[in-house]
């Protein structure tokens, strides 16, 4: 993989049309910039920049690499922001807790946008399952939480921040991968699955929607991370039900196969929660504004089902 600094330099050349101007922007000499670009070209085995008396511009191959590089730089920025929030001291900061799926797939982009809009706002992040997140908010351990489950304990107000779909996934060699018809809800309920631990929003949602279709089979395994579940399914342990956010890349790469289900709605609401009666103020309003922009907000008093 190229170093991020080399990819950033390539993007600067594309934007400025000059290797010298790009070098100046990055605080390095033009010979150092040229050396960095040549190293990048040797690494990828392609000519990326054409130089002329009028400046520098990207080759067709360089333009494609630059487009990919933008995604890498954005992902690195999200990683940096997310890690900083995880390790941040909690004094004088907005304290946030998020369920694992939301923390992995949504929170990083929210934090990047928050930093862009309000660089003065500092956030610390705790990651837990949905039941634990709700309790952290009720206990005053965090200022706001993000959860996946259909029910919440009394004492919390909630706002919808997204809609997610649970997907049944199996390994390519599993018999369900070759089915021509959807799996029935009753069959799914009676099949031993690779599950998240009790208290997980994914696990709770599945138990709620399948409860009307018979007694649920005992789990094959109970694992506390999405990555562990995907690895177990890919290795042939059995089916699992996971967020569409979590399995999108695995389905596209054919590491896992999605199995349609009939007779049950596997959509669920993702929500932001805070203590009832406490109106968000100051920096917390900034957090809510950034997150709420991703979905038309619907506020509710909890204890109710979604």
TrEMBL record:
GO terms for molecular function: DNA-binding transcription factor activity; transcription cis-regulatory region binding. Keywords: DNA-binding, Transcription, Transcription regulation. Residues 2-59 form the HTH lysR-type domain. The keyword Transcription applies. PROSITE patterns: HTH_LYSR. Belongs to the LysR transcriptional regulatory family. It comes from the Bacteria. The keyword Transcription applies. It comes from Tamaricihabitans halophyticus. Gene3D superfamilies: Periplasmic binding protein-like II, Winged helix-like DNA-binding domain superfamily/Winged helix DNA-binding domain. This is Molybdate transport repressor ModE-like protein.
